[in-house]
Amino acid sequence: MPLPDTMFCAQQIHIPPELPDILKQFTKAAIRTQPADVLQWSAGYFTALSRGDPLPIKDRLEMPVATQKTDTGLTPGLLKILHKQCSHKQVVDLADLEQKWKNLCLPIEKFRAVLELDPCKKQIEWIKFLALGCSTLGGSLNTAMKHLCEILTEDPDGGPARIPFETYAYVYRYLAGLDPDISAGETEYYLTNLKESIESRKNGMIGLSDFFFPKRTV
C-alpha cells in the first residue's frame, strides 16, 4: 500500500542556522576560482572545510596564462592554492599532492609531466615542486623566479613581492641545476652579484625590482 503524501509546512522544516552562510561562501569561492569541473572541485572544497584545512580558493579571479610552454592548465593562482594547502610541510607525499591537484581539476598527466622534470618516488620537498610548477608557466628561469616571488611573498598584491634572499637562492640553484645549458659557475656568479646589490638592506629580502638577467662568465 503506497504511503500517503506527506505535507510539510515551514515550521516543520529545520534549516541549520550555519547553512546559508556555508552555501554563500561556497558560491563566492566557486565564482572566484572558476573550476573546470565543479563537482570535483566541490568535493575537495567540502573535504578541506570539514577537516579545517586551507580551502582550494583563488585569492582573486584570474585569466589563464597564455605564455605556458605546454598546456598544463596550471596558473599562478592555482599554484598559490597548492602552496597554501601544502606549505605547512617541508616534504609532501605525492599521493596527497596528486589528490589536491585533482581537486583543482588539473589533468593528472600534467601532474606527472611536472614530476618528470625531477623524478622522485613517494615524496618531494614542497618548495621544489612549487619551483617546478613555476617553471612550466613561463619561458625562462627569470620568469619562473618572478612567479615564485609573487606566490611566496607576504606583500600585498601589486607590491614588490619580496622574499628572503636565501629562499630565492635555494630555488634558483635548484632550477638552474636542472638546465644543462647553465653551469654551476654561471649560477654562483649571478647569485653573488645579486646578493651584493641587496646586501645593504637589513632584512635580506629580494623583490621583483631587484631582478636582472644573469651575465655569462668569461
From TrEMBL:
Q: Which controlled-vocabulary keywords does the entry list?
A: Cell projection, Cilium, Flagellum
- UniProt keyword Oxidoreductase, yes or no: no
The source's superkingdom equals Eukaryota
GO: which molecular function terms?
Answer: identical protein binding
Share an example GO biological-process annotation for this protein. sperm capacitation
Q: Which InterPro entries match?
A: ROP_DD
**Assigned GO CC terms:** motile cilium; nucleoplasm; radial spoke
* Protein's cellular compartments: Cell projection, Cilium, Flagellum
Extract the PANTHER family matched here: ROPPORIN-1-LIKE PROTEIN
Say which family it is in: Belongs to the ropporin family.
Official protein name in the record: Ropporin-1-like protein
Source organism per UniProt: Microcebus murinus (Gray mouse lemur)
